[in-house]
From TrEMBL:
Keyword tags: Aminotransferase, Pyridoxal phosphate, Transferase
Native organism: Halomarina halobia
Listed GO MF terms: transaminase activity
PROSITE patterns: AA_TRANSFER_CLASS_3 (PS00600)
Entry protein name: Aspartate aminotransferase family protein
Amino acid sequence: MAQREQVEVEESSVLAHFGHMGDTPITITDGDGAYVRDSAGNEYLDFTSQLYCVNAGHGNEAIVSAMNDQLDRVQYVSSAVHNDARTRLADRLADVAPNSLEDVFFSISGSEANEAALQIARQFQDASTVLTRWRSYHGGTYTTAGITGDAAIRLPVESHAQTTGNVKFLPPFQGADPAFDADSPEELAERAADHLEYVIRNQGPDSIAALVTEVVGGSSGAFTAPPGYFERVRDLCDEYEILLIVDEVITGFGRCGDWFGSQTEALEPDMLTFAKGVTSAYAPLAGVLMRPELGDALREDAMDIGQTFAGNPVACAAGVAAIDEYEDFIPNVRQLAPTLREKLEELERHPAVCDVRGRGFHWAVEFADPDTGEPVFDPRIEHGHNPVDDIVAVAREEGVLIGGGRPSIQVTLSPPFCVDERDIENAV
Ligand code: PLP
């Protein structure tokens, strides 16, 4: 990788996103496979995939070449007009998606895909309440921050946005401050599903448009559902006629070892939102995959929603090429996921580690309070010094990028799919 001129961040006009992730005093200038380099010439093994996006790694020639070919033909077409790259990508997505999903509505970001899914659900159901989960993340727009279970993100918008109303929260499954006392994963699944049914019955099923859930929690800490939970969720949604929207913005496109996390969990959603990995982040693209009856309803009763850059042909060409690449990369995830899991689970023997959880190439390691040995839960952690920043900074000094999380002390490890066994060993 070439060395670049140093950039003075302190004097720049750029305002940072996701300020709660702590100060990141590096400027990335180059990427190659699973590695990135900063402006000072330091190289890092990137176990964040840059916000869980760059699944195929940096500098993938097939994706770059597909984008260049598309740029040579036509670089932009109105989103109200069809373009062949978009049609090809829609067909490829329907091929690899869970069987229940056939139609696609494209967006630009994961937040906008979730916004669209909520709007479609509320209109189709003629109901407004949305069920979601504490310690989830669904986006940075008013509505999606409003269904996000991370108090630090939700509260600032909730206090002054009417659009976030009619949202009810369900508890996560593990981690600090657990809501259910259960002796086995099966009992946990039963308790969590019974609680969901209790909420539905007391809320009034007819008032509920949708349940939105990640299949494996994302930036909130890779929470996995206990076995049998999602089967009950599907049954309850059918019984009470509630649409099940699965947010696969992180878990889509091989991150859990299958094309989608829903397939890993044997779950058939009514809608599935995706972003990030669809193009391996070579261009911004997102969307909502949905059941044909919802697609037909949109065709018949066209909702006047859309975005100028949704389904941009260059982004869609990147998407088709990325999906072709994943055909080869997903077997690598499947093959190496047990190694990553074993190595991380060895950390559980360390007295500072209280939980290790995840699927495929998406894991969280949670740390205990050194004095009590217990998990730490503090929704105000972002206002003071977050100990996670220290852990992330030490890893960075050692040449590995990992993600930080709240409101407990946890880090996430989500490598690109092109890593090998030695990379995993080095990072862990
Ligand atoms: N949903 C999940 C699970 C996410 O992790 C994210 C972003 O990190 C989003 C939605 C929002 O996506 P975007 O940042 O592209 O708007």
